[in-house]
Each structure stands twice: as C-alpha cells, then as structure tokens.
Amino acid sequence: MPPGSRKELTGTALNEIDCMDFLQTRLDKANGPFLAVYWSFVPHYPYSDYGSDFRILPDPGSNRQRYYNNLRLLDEQLRRIYEHLVKTGVADRTLFVFVGDHGEAFEQHPGVVAHGSGCYDEMYHVPMLFWQPRLIPPQVIQLPTSHVDIVPTLLDVLGVSYDASRFQGESVLRGTPVRKYIFCTDAYANYVTAINPLMNKVSICFDRDTALAFNLAKDPMEKFPLNEYNFPGQIDAILKFHNFQPQLIAAYNQAILDGHDSLYKRIPGLVTNGSPAAQTLR
C-alpha cells in the first residue's frame, strides 16, 4: 500500500476504502490483459465499524451487526470497481469472479463462532459468481459445488481446452457432475465433510472421533441430526479423502518441481486402475 494510508480501526488490516482506491490506480496502469485480485478483509473478524455511512443496522455493538454492516461496505466497494471499469471502457471485456473462501458463524450452533472450527454450513456455504454476459448466459447452478470447480469452470468460460481428468474439480457449465461427493475441510479441528447431490451431508471430526449427518435440502439449518451410519458410502469416501488427499497434493507439487506428471505411482496404497487419482475419492 502507498505511504500514508489510513489504518483500519483495529490496526489488523489496511483500510478497505484505501485498498480499493489503490486497486483502481493499478488497474488504470494495466496494459493489455490483466489479472487483478482483490481480497477483502471487512467481512472478517473483528468486523471493524466504518461509521454511519455504511450501516444498515443502527447499533454496531455486536459482532453480527458489524458483520452485516461490513457486507454493505463490501457491496459498495464492488460497485465502485465495476463502475470504474465501465467508465474506463474495460468492463465489457473483463471476466468478474466473486467467491468467498469461508463463511462466518455467530453461534447458530453452540460454541461455533467466526470461522475457527466446525463443520456446519455457516462455515462452508459461500457465494461463487462468474459474470461476463458476452461469454456466459445468466443461470443458477443448483447442485452443490466446491472451490476446486473454479479453475475448470474458468477454463470453460474462456474457451481454453484442458484434460478434465487432471482436475479434482468439475466445470459447473458441463451439466450433472460425474463425482459422487464434494468435500469440505476444517483444518483447525480436523473435520472432513462429504456432501452428495441429494444434499446428504456427513462430517467426521478425526481429532474428536465424532461424526454428524444432516440432509441440507430438508434441514438447511442443520437442527435435526441423522444417523451417520445410514451413509456408509460417504463415510468410506471421507476416510479415503483424509488418508490420500494430503499425499495427492504433496505428490502433485513434487511432480511439477520434477517436471513430469507421474504423481500417482508416488502414493503407496493408492489404487487407480488407470483412472485419475481423483476418481478414488468419488
């Protein structure tokens, strides 16, 4: 950030409005195709109060009220950047991607706050929006998706060919996914969650040796637990994900460093039968 920028009230991050000013300045200097990443802090704990101009709730006393007010602030910053790109004639050839990395919890379930530890949907359910009407028509994806779907979806939007078997994610533009489950993780308490297309959700906490199950279609607030033993396929998939996913990531990174793609033979106990390793997690 440039010298003299105002600090956010908590001192934990730079002022959000200054950050957007700086981003606009950098975009004005970009020549040709560009990639710009804007990582917002305002919807993140401790949810600093930016004053009455951005309050949709009059009393900013609680974390949850400040969080909602800061979503209003974030909306305003997104509006600013979009209108700036329209004004400069760049918006009609820019692909916008809006995505959250995690949700925020406010004790919808006892003891679950911010985004520390937990396997509930308030932690995992985040927006993912792609916008460029010249490339993709308006549509809503109803099936559960994952962050691993972002790259293959981007490649499809941009018309870039790729080998789909090399991705664990699937493009949301290709209809019904091949996979059986999407996976969510919580690194703090060592949760792994599997969700199937019917919105049955099973979570295992490996640190506490506990499990939970819900049907998100019928019980989106996760108030009525199901018997997790009614979902043996998901339990088995979670165990495979927990055992093999860290090895897959390490082997993938090492294969890139080594300049080749023979990563599957590096993982003892992983049987692929000629299919991509991702298939064993489905």
Protein model, in words:
With 282 residues, this protein is an alpha+beta fold. The protein folds into two domains: 1-94, no CATH class; 95-281, Alkaline Phosphatase, subunit A, CATH 3.40.720. The chain is built from five helices and eight strands. It has helices at 16-29, 63-87, 121-124, 150-158, 232-258, and strands spanning 96-99, 105-106, 113-114, 128-131, 182-186, 191-195, 200-205, 210-215. β6 (191-195) and β7 form a beta hairpin. α1 packs parallel to α2 (63-87). Mean pLDDT is 86; it is low at 1-5 and 271-282.
Could you give the count of β-strands? 8
**CATH topology assignment of the largest domain:** Alkaline Phosphatase, subunit A
Portion of residues within helices: 25-40%
Structural class, from secondary structure content?
Answer: alpha+beta
Oligomer: single chain
Strand numbers in spatial order across the main sheet: 5-6-7-8
How many domains? The number is 2
**Between the first and last Cα atoms, what is the distance in angstroms?**
43 Å
Poorly predicted runs are: 1-5, 271-282
Order of helices and strands: HHEEEHEHEEEEH
Short description:
This protein is α+β, with helices and mostly antiparallel strands and 282 residues long. Helices cover 28% and strands 12% of the residues.
